[in-house]
Amino acid sequence: MPYTAPAGTHVGHVHLRVSDLDRSIAFYEGVLGFTLNVKYADSAAFLGAGGYHHHIGLNVWDSENASPPPPGHTGLYHSAFLYPDRAALVEVIKRVQNAGIPFDGAAHHGVSTAVYLRDPDQNGVELYVDLPRAEWPRAADGHLAMVNTRFSIPDYVAETEALLANGALS
């Protein structure tokens, strides 16, 4: 019989090899807003949100001053960070924009809304918010029917700000 991971199981953290520790800390702490909890000299750092010990580990143990892997090779596609609500997602989107970091794209997936970008080492980063489970699209057989509908980030930000101003979002 196949094993099924129990409910409540989730990805606890991502640990990345980076080429410049301080530059990566500046991105994950200064732009995305994670808290630097521990830094081991100039070799590793651990950052988290909401008081958690770490959601992100960074190290230069085997990668200091290294170049990113070339396109078309195996490796990390992206790490994904779930924000608690649409307002929080828009807040971090604006922080990324203010830092001058370009987005690779944005998509509604039926189950979530996500934006995509790259960290300083060109690792893919997804910032997203889940939609209520009751709204997730389902096929006739009950399986998820996810989609990949692109959207305009400026329009999403403006729409969200209008909803917040009108009290339609908390």
CATH-defined architecture of the largest domain: Roll
- Order the strands across the largest sheet as they lie in space: 5-8-7-6-9
> Compute the gyration radius: what is it?
18 Å
The share of residues in helices is 10-25%
Query: What distance lies between the first and last C-alpha atoms, to the nearest angstrom?
Result: 45 Å
Q: Give the total of beta strands.
A: 9
Could you walk me through the main structural features you see in this protein, from its secondary elements to its overall organization?
The N and C termini lie far apart (45 Å). Helices cover 22% and strands 26% of the residues. It has a five-stranded mixed β-sheet with strand order 5-8-7-6-9, covered by helices on one side. Strands 1-4-3-2 form a four-stranded mixed β-sheet, covered by helices on one side. Helix 2 (86-98) packs across helix 3. The chain has 170 residues and is of the alpha+beta class. The chain has helices spanning 21-31, 86-98, 153-165, and strands at 14-17, 35-40, 44-48, 56-59, 79-82, 103-108, 112-118, 124-130, 149-150. It folds into two domains: 10-65, Roll (2,3-Dihydroxybiphenyl 1,2-Dioxygenase, domain 1); 77-170, Roll (2,3-Dihydroxybiphenyl 1,2-Dioxygenase, domain 1), CATH 3.10.180.
